[in-house]
TrEMBL record:
The chain crosses the membrane at residues 25-45, 57-82, 141-165, 185-212, 293-313. Keywords: Membrane, Transmembrane, Transmembrane helix. This is G-protein coupled receptors family 1 profile domain-containing protein.
Amino acid sequence: MSVNDLSESFWLCVNVTDDKDALDIVIFVTEFVGLVPGLLVAVLLCRLDGKTRTSLLMLRTLAICSVLQLIINLIGDIYPYSIRTGSYGFNLFLCALWTSRFAFWIFAIIGAHAQVYLCTNRAMQIVSNLQLSFASSRNIDLVYIAGLVLYSTLITVPQAFTIVYDGDECYCSEQLTYLSYLQLAYAQVYIFFIQVLLVNSIVLFTTCFCVVKYVKNTPHEKFMDTLNALSFCNTPEEELKAYTEVKGWSTSTMCIVPMFVSYFISFSYDTTYQFVSAIGLTHYPINGLTQKVGVWIQLIHPALIPYYLFYYIPALRFWVRRRWHWVMGFCRRRKKHHLV
C-alpha cells in the first residue's frame, strides 16, 4: 500500500478470545487505581469555587473526561460482548458508539483539548501578569466547552465508521461499505497524529516552559498563583491564608508539567502506530496484542490526573490530609478500645 492509496484499510482485524492474560490484569489494576480517586476528585472539584473560573471549569472537564474514559474501558473489560436488542437502529447506534471505541476516544479528545486550553490559559495569565484581571462570564465559559465538544466530536466521528453492522453482528472489517468511510478514517489518523499529538504536545511543552521559568525566576515576595485560592465553601480564614502562601514548585499551576508528561506518553503510542500504518509502513492490528498495549498506555494519563490534582491543588491536598488524620485517629481509638 502506498502513502496515497486510500482505497484499502490500514488495519488488520484480529480474532478476539476470552482468555485473560497478564496485560488484562495490568489494565484492570490501572483502571481501578485511577477510577476511585478520579471519582472523588471530580466530585470535589465541582464543590470548589474561586475567581479562576475558566481554569476551574477546564479542570472539572478534564477530571470528568478522565473518569469516563476509565469507566467505559472498565465496562468493556467486564462485558466485552455486543448488546443486541430488537431495534435495528439502536443496535447500529451501539455499534457505532461502543464497539468502535468512539465512546472512549471522544472523552479522551475532549479531555485533551480541555487540558490544552487550561495550560494555555494559565501560562498566558502568568506570563502576561493577567491573573488579577476580570474573570470571564459563565456564558463565555460554556461557549468554550461547547466549542471543545463540537470540534472533538467532528474529528472523532470517523472512528464510528471503522466497524461494520450487518443487521445481526457488529464486527471489525478490513473492507468498509463505502470508500468515503475509509477516507474519513485516514483523515482522523492524520489529524490525531499531527494535531492531537504533535501540535498539542508543542503547545503544552511551551506552556510548561513558561510556567517553570516563572516559578524559577520570580522572587518569593512577588510570586502569585491565583489557582491556589480555589476553596470549599466555609473554609476557615487561616486555611485560606495557608492556600495562598503555597509557592514554588508545589504551586497549583505546576500541575500542568506532570500532566504534559503523561499526556505525551499516553497519546504517543497509539496515534503514532496508526499514523505509521496509514502511510503504509505496517498494519494496525485491531483487537491484537499491540493495540491492547496501546489501550493500557492510553489509560495511564486519565489514571494519574487525580493524583496530580490532589497533590498540587491546596484545597484538595488539605482535604486529603484531614481525612487521613481522621482515619489514623479512628484506627488508634479502635486499637486502644480493643486493648482495654
